Amino acid sequence: MKGVRAELLVLRLPDSPGSLACERLEAAVSPERRERCSRYRRREDALRSLAGEALLRAALSRRTGRPGAELRLAENRFGKPCWADGRSDGGGLRFNVSHAGRWVAVLLGGGEVGVDVEEIKPLQPLFPVDCLHPAEARWWRRLPEPERLAAFYELWTLKESYVKAKGMGLSLPLHSFAVQPLEGGGAALAPPDGDCRLRLYPLAEDMRLAGCAIDGSLPSSPEFWTFEQLLERAAPRR
Question: At 76, phi and psi to the nearest 5?
C-alpha cells in the first residue's frame, strides 16, 4: 500500500540475559510462541524466537496505538507472520521478522515485505552453486577469492528477503530468479516483479542484513533498539 511509512527495527541481544529479563520476554509473546520455544534444545534459539515476536509486537503497538498483547497475529502456511484471519488491524501494515546470531530484525511496510539477517559462516563445498541463479553464479565466480564469502551472503540475504516478501517459502526456488547488488546498497531483480525494491543494510562485520518491499517503500536506514528498550516497550514493569 502506497503512503504507508516503512520501518526497519534492529536489535542486538545480550550475551547472557538474566532469568528475569527472559521472563519478561515470555510475558510479551503469545502462548503459542512460549510453548514452541519451550521445546527448543538450545537456549539461544529460544531467546531469538522470543525476542523476534516481542520486537514485532512492540513495533506494531507503536504504530497502531494498541497494546502488543492485544494484537492478533498468525502465520501463513509457509510461516510468514500476518494478521490473524487476514484482518489488517494496522491500517495496511505488513511485516516480517528475521533473526540470526545475536541479531533480530523486524520490517514494517505498506506492501508485502521481507527481511533477512544472516551470520557469515564458512560455506560448504559447491553449496552456492545449488541455490544461485546461473547469472549470479557467474558473477560470484568472477570475484576475487577473498571477496566471495561476504558476496555470497549478500546475495543470500537479498534472495531470502524477496522469498519472504512473496510469502511462498521455498516453493519459490532460490535459483529461479537473480539479484544483482548495486552501488549504494540497492539491488536489481531479474526477472522483474512489479514495483519490487531490494536493499542491503550495514550491520556488524560478520553479519548481512537485507530487506525487500513489493508495492511499497523501504527505509533508508535501520532504527536500532537496545535490549533494555525492547523490555520497556514490550513488557514494561508493573
Answer: -75, 180
